[in-house]
Amino acid sequence: MKTELEALGRQRFRVRGEVDADTLRRERNRRARAYAPHVHVKGFRPGHVPLELVARQIGPALDDEARESAARQAIADVLKERSLSLTFDPEIQYGEAGADGTVPFTAEFETLPTLDPKDYLGVEVPDLDLPPVSEDDVEAGLQRLRESAATYQERPADSVAHEGDIATCEVALRDAETGEALGDPRTLRLAVGLADDPLPDIGRELLGMKAGEERSFPRTIPAKDGSGEEVPRKVEASVKVQALMEKVLPALDDDFARRYGGTETLAEWKDRLRAHLENKRQETLREMRADAVVSAILQANPIEVGEETVRRLAAQTESQVKERLMPGLSAEQRDQVPLGIAPERMESFARDRLARNLLLDAIAKHEGVEVAPEDLERKLEELSQELDVPLPRLRAAASPDLLDRLRSQIRHEKTLDMLVRYAVVKPRVVETGTMPPDRAGPPPGTGGGGPADRPDAARPDDNEVTP
């Protein structure tokens, strides 16, 4: 078979080739032999049907499979010769077969860059720091738990709605020009002062209203015209408050600590929370310093990745995040739900993550970083605790793919530790402000703290490790 590889730039290549008639025939016969035990022809025992009869029964699909298999093998041989790795399977375009049965083909694809990292030991990084845990941080953590433990009780009949109340309302819409009712009235529970659905700022309209009171106000909503195009539509909204519920926060006392924190006193729980926040602070600092080291090395070793590879990785990452956040929905349903992250931001994240992982892989290979059996066992124990799954059950359910991803994660962690140890720290730059709330996590003793409980749960992980 003839093949020719053409570099198109930015890790993109084109292969032009031909699959000759002899190769097609051999591949066709090979696949026919694989199908033979499953083909039944009268007068022949299973597995003893002549190959030509097998091919005739399968039909043109066998020729298509043989052509596809031969072309992909030709592409794989070219990539192996050049030490290139595909980032996605290419679509192969076929031309008309020649008089001798030769079939021409072309395919475009992107590959991973080949890296030879340099100057990665002893890079200069700032000595980043975060402010120590303050009493305000501790109080904020307790307040978040108070909010989550809040209950609601009905307000007295003459009370007005305050922000944060829950109002049970009957909502009706009419066309502002014709007065035509737009569907039946709906009974909804809305957050006073906060709700923006089913109408923009509807929660603000409820402020100051009493149970039994009704209010009308204009709004403009999107609608479809006769051609299916989206056009603005003016409506008159009517809201009647049926009941008001106010939020009641539990008292911040020793009883609260016993019930929600698992400690005898509030002071003891504050001490535990302070230690928890300090651990999170140290973890955040380690991540910040590791990110600074990797960023400095990437500046010295710029990595170019293909744009189509980045788009596909971004789409895959978005799908994984949606699956984690919306496990109860089907893939088709999740596709209809916007994640709320701009495509440019998702692609930027995908590009950075790919470059980071490629760099760590290359350095680990260059330095001979190995993953020992005991390293994998420790990681399985950590995962067992994180998922609250017994270790023997996790071991039994761990697929080869999961174990490979865990080994990759361990290798990256070891490599990062080495790079941070060798980094040269410049004079410290103190980050102003308080500890980021998404790094603080929930107070200990609440049963929270898993990825889905964190405000940054929509952030994709570098190494997804769910069994």
Write structural notes for this entry.
The chain has 467 residues and is an alpha+beta fold. It has three domains: 109 residues, Alpha-Beta Plaits; 215 residues, Trigger factor, domain 2 (Orthogonal Bundle); 98 residues, Chitinase A, domain 3 (Roll), CATH 3.10.50. Helix content is 44%, strand content 19%. It is built from 14 helices and eleven strands. Strands 6, 7, 8, 9 and 10 form a five-stranded antiparallel beta sheet that branches. The longest helix has 35 residues. It starts with a strand and ends in a 27-residue tail after the last helix. The C terminus is likely disordered.
Brief summary:
The protein has 467 residues and is an alpha+beta fold. It has helices at 21-35, 51-58, 60-82, 135-148, 202-205, 254-260, 266-300, 307-325, 331-335, 343-367, 373-387, 391-397, 400-422, 437-440; strands at 2-9, 12-19, 92-94, 103-110, 124-129, 151-154, 166-175, 186-191, 214-224, 230-248, 424-430.
Name the CATH superfamily assignment of the largest domain: Trigger factor, C-terminal domain
Query: Tell me about the biggest sheet?
Result: 5 strands, antiparallel
Looking at the structure, what is the overall shape?
extended
CATH architecture of the largest domain: Orthogonal Bundle
Overall pLDDT level? 87
Spans of at least 5 consecutive residues with low confidence:
433-467
How many helical elements?
A: 14
- CATH fold group of the largest domain: Trigger factor, domain 2
Rg from Cα: 31 Å
Task: Name the structural class.
Answer: alpha+beta
The amount of beta strand, in percent, is 15-25%
How many domains, as an integer? 3
How many beta-strand runs?
Answer: 11
Which series of helices and strands comes N to C?
EEHHHEEEHEEEHEEHHHHHHHHEH
Give the termini distance in whole angstroms: 42 Å
**Proportion in helices:** 40-55%
